[in-house]
Specification:
Blueprint: E1 4-6, H1 11-24, E2 30-31, H2 49-64, E3 67-77, H3 98-108, E4 118-128, E5 133-144, E6 160-162, H4 174-180, H5 182-197
Parallel strand pairs: 1-2, 1-3
Antiparallel strand pairs: 3-4, 4-5, 5-6
Amino acid sequence: MMDVVLATGNRKKIEEIKKIFAVMGTASKIYTLDDFPAVEEVEEDGDTFEANALKKARHIARATGMTAVADDSGLEVEALNGAPGVYSARYAGDDADDKANNEKLLGALKDVPEEKRGAQFVCCIALVSSEEEETFMGYVKGRIGSEPKGAGGFGYDPLFYPEGSKRTFAEMSDTEKNAISHRANALGKLQQYLLTKRGYIRGF
């Protein structure tokens, strides 16, 4: 077993990651940046999800001396040539909230028919310690709806219908979403890496 620190201050992401780890059976002690108030987050200025995840994980691993797990994720919309992509969290501006980002996305797609509203959520999980650096990608394909539906989740969840579903992520329970999400996909690959490469018997 090993302790990890989550290299994010996003409480929604922390909550989701912890729940996914719990389902996977991890018995690790999971720390967050709240446990290290002197450590500042870094600017996410990379051109890819992988670059941002690695930058965050490297910084937190160096600052804490612990194994760091960082997440960078976002939404790629086919009709917008992959936008908002790495700018998903600040699509409507640096201080934008989820509502503003969703409204901008709907505005950008207002003349796009349903059959051309394909999209995918992407997640990169980076694991960085003094001994290793690894990244794990996760994806979930779907489409963007014409109006927000559901009160759960965060980000673009009220607009995103995963393939084969008539409900948005925001209309699903945490358990349902976490079973198929891009983040669960990436974290599952991280878990498998730890099981096979490092010999952990159960999760971390």
